[in-house]
Here is the input.
Amino acid sequence: MNEETMNGNQNVEPAVSAPEAETSVPPVSPEQEMINQRNLARKEEQEALKRENERQEACVKVVGEQFGYYGLLSLAYGIIYSLCLYKNTSGILVPVFTAVSYGMAYLVLKKMNMPIKKWSYYLAALSLLISISTCRTASYFFIFFNKQAVLLLWWVFWLHQFYEDDAWNIGKYFCTIFQFLFRIVCALGYPFKHCASYVKSLKNQKSRNVVLVLFGVVVAIPLVSILTILLSEADMVFQNILTTFLDTFLKPSTVIGVVAKTLFGVVAFYCIICEVSRKGIREEVEDRRKQEPIVAITAMGLVGVLYVMFCGIQIVYLFMGKGVLPDDMTYSEYARQGFFQLVFVSLLNLVLVLLCLKYFKKNRVLNVVLTIISLCTYVMMASAGYRMMLYISEYHLTLLRILVLWFLAVLAVLMAGVLMIIYRNDFPLFRYCIVVISAAYFALAWSKPDFIIARYNMSHEAELSYDSVYYLTHLSADAAPEVSKLIGSKWDEYGNVQNYLAWSHKEMSWRTYNFSYAKAKQYQ
Here is the structure.
């Protein structure tokens, strides 16, 4: 091999390798970026929900760990609930049960180290007063609505104590009440779960004590039975009381009813404790005032023009007595003709104004339009009230006519709150409504409308007819002091008065004592 060849081999340069391909991430499309963000937000929401559920379960676990206290409290509540309200809708124990309920609530709040808020005192006091009015009346109408009013105030009491409800509107509060009731039902398993855990956690000494107590009860049963027989033979008064007690409370149907009512009270109260401890209802109120106000200004402006024209006619024809009525129409007929329409329109105006304030952006022009509609609503309510007064002067009082006048008065006060919230968005309208409606209802229930009806109609005795006397003798026992004045009159011949007074008499025990029935008994 020659030298050149050797040199050539030595001078051969090494092959240059191709550059390595650069690794790069393909660009993400806007659609994919949006999907990723949505998935991330969903994941964060699920994690937040999981943490919230864990927090709520931890709160309920604390209640379960203190089952000895809360369980005993619930048991006492159930027993008192059954004792006071079993087959007793209007007796003297109704306000006693209301007082006990709020006393039990105070013990729960004290155990949870929660101070009682100022407005809670108002709710408790008004509930007690309404309950007292229940044992003062024999009207089934007011007995029923008294119960509903006390229940509503009871739910509001719990929500107000455990949530910051200052910014809640009417819609938020009613939705929260229904949500609260639903969550109480969903907590139905906690009483039984906590009871089972508590029994298992009892220490040996406590278990022995429980067994000894049960053994003592078993031993006492035959001993008490023998002593009861001997004592009943020794004293006839004791025997009569014992017989009455056994006939009343130891019938199979009575025992089943009492036990069922007691269990319901125990479970319901414990479920309330578990639910309020969780505080699982959102407190935030979403701001929905996002719609452009021009739509509301246009629509409500046209309505306002119509209302101004209508109110002008009311002032001229009805209030000032000027103008000419249609032929063959009296003022009483004119008064009755449009009354219910005016009441409906007044209520509709209240709803429309609240809807505008809830969904449309704040605007000065819209506020002026809503103010005009609110003021026109006052004229309409005055017109409706005046029409009803004309009609009452002609055809006297009934419960429906009193309720309508009461409703108009309440609506007028509520409308003042609506006027406030038009210019002050932070005005607590729901709390204002609760105070107004509950106080007005208490005044109505306490006044015994059946008695007022009878007294007013009896003051026009010369104008009574068979139909009006028939109506009077079908009122509740509240009207007995006035209806009894018909005894010996020409209306007594029909037998309605005596039948009414006999019907107004009701046998009462110490549990079911009612002041109205007791007073009616004096006029038999």
